[in-house]
């Protein structure tokens, strides 16, 4: 309990307006992410497309839901340190599964090299490993957590580059740039007003670009092909 209290005490305490912005900037995207995942599911032309759409939709929606719940808890029940800490842990764990879910459509629906295909399941092992680390060492070694997210984002990207069909890679890179630049604001709480809310906006933009790429290059071609046949 002392560890939880001390960690909460050292963390930057947002203003009321910043709390509201933190909730709104991710809460707003919950419904669109549900709709977006459903659209991909109904555009699916086979079982693999449906599984990929389900995984991606759940990861995308889960990220915005857990983030909104945590920031709501940090705003309204911050005096319940242990409860807030549990929400914070879930928020951090959801990021690992969101990264895995974001890559899954590309890894499942594109032709990969003989060694690269193993990343389809390795990325979920990485997500489980990262979540286990958060469960046991949450907020103790922040640099290690940050490096874990960077590794989760970078390693599968190397596999994506091995694809024969590279359509959509430009959009993937662009979305990745938004995530990376957003980290600057993520680490600027207390230095830049509304820094965390700005980080949320960068995440939403990056996720939107990645969603467009998945819809445009992985799902739309299948629908067009079925219609032409």
List the helices and strands and how they pair.
Blueprint (H helix, E strand, L loop, with lengths): L1 H9 L5 H12 L2 H14 L3 H30 L4 H29 L9 H19 L4 H19 L8 H18 L8 H34 L1
Protein name: Monocyte to macrophage differentiation-associated 2a
GO cellular component, one term: membrane
GO molecular function, one term: pore-forming activity
Question: How would you describe this structure to a colleague?
Answer:
With 229 residues, the chain is mostly helical. The chain has one domain: Rhopdopsin 7-helix transmembrane proteins (Up-down Bundle), CATH 1.20.1070. It has helices at residues 2-10, 16-27, 30-43, 47-76, 81-109, 119-137, 142-160, 169-186, 195-228. The longest helix has 34 residues, at 195-228. The N and C termini lie far apart (63 Å). 35% of the residues are buried. Residues 1-9 have low confidence and may be disordered.
């Amino acid at each position: 309990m002392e560890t939880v209290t001390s960690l909460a005490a050292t963390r930057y305490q947002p203003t009321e307006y910043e709390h509201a912005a933190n909730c709104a900037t991710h809460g707003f995207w919950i419904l669109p992410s549900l709709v977006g995942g459903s659209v991909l599911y109904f555009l699916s032309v086979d079982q693999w497309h449906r599984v990929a759409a389900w995984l991606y939709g759940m990861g995308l929606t889960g990220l915005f839901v857990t983030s909104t719940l945590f920031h709501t808890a940090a705003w309204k029940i911050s005096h319940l340190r242990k409860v807030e800490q549990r929400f914070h842990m879930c928020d951090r764990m959801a990021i690992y599964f969101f990264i895995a879910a974001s890559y899954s459509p590309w890894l499942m629906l594109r032709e990969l090299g003989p060694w690269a295909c193993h990343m389809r399941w390795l990325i979920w092992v990485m997500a489980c490993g990262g979540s286990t680390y958060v469960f046991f060492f949450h907020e103790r070694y922040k640099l290690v957590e940050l490096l874990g997210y960077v590794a989760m984002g970078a390693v599968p990207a190397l596999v994506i580059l091995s694809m024969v069909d590279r359509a959509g890679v430009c959009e993937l890179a662009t979305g990745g740039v938004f995530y990376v630049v957003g980290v600057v604001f993520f680490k600027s709480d207390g230095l830049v007003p509304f820094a965390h809310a700005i980080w949320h906006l960068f995440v939403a933009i990056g996720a939107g670009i990645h969603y467009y790429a998945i819809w445009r290059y992985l799902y739309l071609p299948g629908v067009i092909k079925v219609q032409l046949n």
